[in-house]
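Write out the 3D structure for:
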Amino acid sequence: MEHEVDRGTTGGVSRALRIVIAEDDPLLREGLALLLRAEGLDVVATADTGESVLDAIDEHEPDVAILDVRMPPTHTDEGVRAAVEARRRRPALAVLVLSAYVEQSFATDLLTGGVDGIGYLLKERVGRVEEFMRALRRVAAGGTAIDPEVVAQLFTRTRQDTRLERLSRREREVLALMAEGLGNSAIAGRLVVTDGAVHKHIRSIFAKLDLSPADQVDRRVAAVLHYLENARAQPR
């Protein structure tokens, strides 16, 4: 079940999430701001470049930054670079990056610094308001939200990785849902299996990907980053 996210109180009264938006398309930028305000969230600033959104984040100290991948001046990866820099400055900041289409290298760049409070969604998801708001709240609460289409396309580019070849069809499904940010119970519900079955599949995934409990890294994070990195390495 999804819950409203409370990021603090002021005088005993819960305050709304504070959000900064970076999008160079004025119609999409204002439309997104209107949507979020209608949902009771506090859009404290909007920006149209990677540089200006960093200034806005420094000034307003938001809970969440929503950034387009491609912004002026080069319209390449300004949003991702701004997201990475924003997280370097404020590690607790939740970041949700929006992209017009799947760009697996950008997804990998975003996630290599850690997956807590990180989201990567296709822009078409914004139009599905309930789905988009669930993803936003998950990210704001410190979770991960990776667009299912991103996950699906990444999996089609991992065929040369021998370790991923070891995974069964069901284990691939479980790993895909892990990458979307779902916990064990949510995965069980999606696949209509027991929590115990999901736990067993995840243990098997860790073993087949050679992820040891002694490793100094969260194995769940490592499993997701493994195939994201592998996807980036494949020829396009």
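Strands lie at 9-10, 13-14, 18-22, 42-47, 64-68, 94-99, 118-122, 144-146.
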